[in-house]
Amino acid sequence: MYSTNRGTVGGFFLAGRSMVWWPIGASLFASNIGSGHFVGIAGTAAARGIAIGGYEWNALILVVVLGWLFVPIYIKAGVVTMPEYLRKRFGGKRIQVYLSVLSLLLYIFTKISADIFSGAVFIQLAIGLNLYVAIIILLAITALYTITGGLAAVIYTDTLQTFIMVVGSFILMGFAFSEVGGYDAFMQKYMEAIPSNISYGNTTINPECYTPRKDSFHIFRDPVTGDLPWPGLVFGLSIIALWYWCTDQVIVQRCLSGKNMSHVKAGCVLCGYLKLLPMFIIVMPGMISRILYTDVVACVVPEVCQQYCGTSVGCTNIAYPKMVVELMPQGLRGLMLSVMLASLMSSLTSIFNSASTLFTMDIYTKIRSRPSEKELMLAGRAFMLVLIGISIAWVPVVQSAQNGQLFDYIQSITSYLGPPIAALFLLAIFCKRVNEQGAFWGLMIGLLAGLSRMIAEFAYGTGNCVTPSNCPFIICGIHYLYFAMILFGVSAIVILAVSFMTKPIPDVHLYRLCWSLRNSTEERIDLDADEEQDKADEKDEESVNEENEEEPGCFKKAYNWFCGLDQQKAPKLSKEEEEALKKKLTDTSEVPLWRNVVNINGIILLTVAVFCHAFFA
Question: Contact, 543 vs 572, CB < 8 A?
């Protein structure tokens, strides 16, 4: 174990396959909860009550699906990234390029802009700067930290930041409840939190816009008139969550680093228990913020809102930061703000990193065959700058989308782009009849349908309660969670229909890549085998060339180090060592005792999930 060098991908991930269960669980939770959650979820809660907590609790079920159904297949397939799994499963390059482009779109529209916006909201409240100045400061620090290689801050730093964030938010929750006077007083006062300023000029605003909803304390709401209808919350949300928890590179990569299957499953269970917390440490404090600062957080008059937080559609997004700044004692306040910003930067750096990796490895190499290492590094850096530019330009849209509800905005974009991928992965694993043509056309039709809804919605604007959007019902009237269900269904039907009309993939290519063949021991001939062979030949050429290189000078060494260009040469492995390595990488066996322990815990977690939903239903 000690001798495998991190210079090889296998070795790098093997250093990987040594994580125990608690960092995996904590890191899964950390990569999921960022400061965007604190701003977005607390904001939606301040506006609409606890239903948004259902989004967090839905994950309790999905992490079990991830650990018990998806990860064993990924490990047996011996893959490192999700596009790589699809390439082995279907062959061809189109699907891989499609996935890379789509992931980049999702990164720009949801992750990067939402993160930048929520970080800027914190800075704006704490120091009182203009939103855009705050954004520029934030990005300058982050860029410095990324470009000079602050990416070694991986699993353990994530875990530490999350720990401080959770402890800080527990303390804040204590302060908040004591300020309101306990849980019963909180329920009563929330329903009475109505802003004093409800008219402007000679217009009186409709009471529905500023009165807390009658169903504020229920997770399951009316399927037709509810703002988060219950069938959408149960089925539509599960589809988005399937995309997020089971096929997203960031999440799955944390699981693939587990020591063995029992550790992976235990990590998933731990993450599930941690996901119980946001309801109490983010959602409820967000609602309390509305009680304590009713006129600011629940403002409805556009001019008043503009003055408080710089957006005319409403100020619910500042619910959580406002409490941090007002309620926390001096030292804790600084700690909390610095941790929020640190978490934000770590999530931005990891997103910038994975986005530039996606671009250079999957897109740039298709445009230029055989670019040099240095050219790739520069392309990645340049692409990062382009990304930042687009993301800043998109911030005003994020600010005013979906009634100014950040979290709704993120979920709605995901519902327009995620379901086809969820359908594809589900069918790729559980239905071996699905082939490349079916997968490709299903993804294409799903993408067109999703983009048409997304573009229409931005063209018309989502409007808000005071000034509704004039988008026709047929386009924007269907709730985004229902739209996700329809899109998932359509994509799945297209994938299956086209697959059944075309030739199936022979079993010899599918051993250990889908559920029905997961335990086969026969040799698999990969569909991308010839590509792999080319790569191996290139590697041999490279190693011959490397032996003839001279030692670089000091200045060159320093420059290389600064840009992360100096790679240590990995020791060559013999054939037997490679086989043994591969065997260890794809091993999913478990010790019976621990297998039973994690299985029982998984069942308990599912029971807890059902109980929580029922209790607050």
Answer: yes
Tokens of residue 375, six digits? 């050219």
217-221 own/partner pairs: CB under 8 Å, 24+ apart: 217/49, 217/50, 217/187, 217/616, 218/49, 218/50, 218/51, 218/616, 218/617, 219/50, 219/51, 219/53, 219/54, 219/57, 219/613, 219/616, 219/617, 220/51, 220/54, 220/613, 220/617, 221/51
CA 481, CA 61: separation in Å to the nearest integer?
18
Residue 145 has a pLDDT of 65
C-alpha torsion angle, residues 532, 535, 539, 540 (rounded to 10): 70
Are 115 and 341 within 8 A, CB to CB? no
Evaluate whether 46 touches 282 at the Cβ level (below 8 Å). no
Question: Which residue pairs from 377-383 have beta carbons closer than 8 angstroms and sit at least 24 positions apart in sequence?
Answer: 377/563, 377/564, 377/565, 380/356, 381/147, 381/356, 381/563, 383/355, 383/356, 383/359
Supply the pTM of this predicted model.
0.85
Range 447-455 contact pairs with CB under 8 angstroms and sequence separation of 24 or more: 447/98, 447/102, 447/417, 447/420, 449/487, 449/490, 450/416, 450/417, 450/419, 450/420, 450/487, 451/416, 451/417, 453/416, 453/483, 454/413, 454/416, 454/417
Residue type at 78 in one-letter notation: G
According to DSSP, the residues that pair with 200 across neighbouring strands are 203
Q: Contact at 8 Å (CB) between 305 and 313?
A: yes
| pLDDT confidence of residue 311 | 79
pLDDT digits (tens, 9 = 90+) for 487-541: 999 999 999 999 999 999 998 888 888 898 888 888 888 887 776 666 666 656 5
Give Cβ neighbours of residue 352 (< 8 Å, ≥ 6 apart). Answer: 112, 142, 146, 384, 387, 388
Residues of the chain with pLDDT under 50: 1-7, 11-15, 150-153
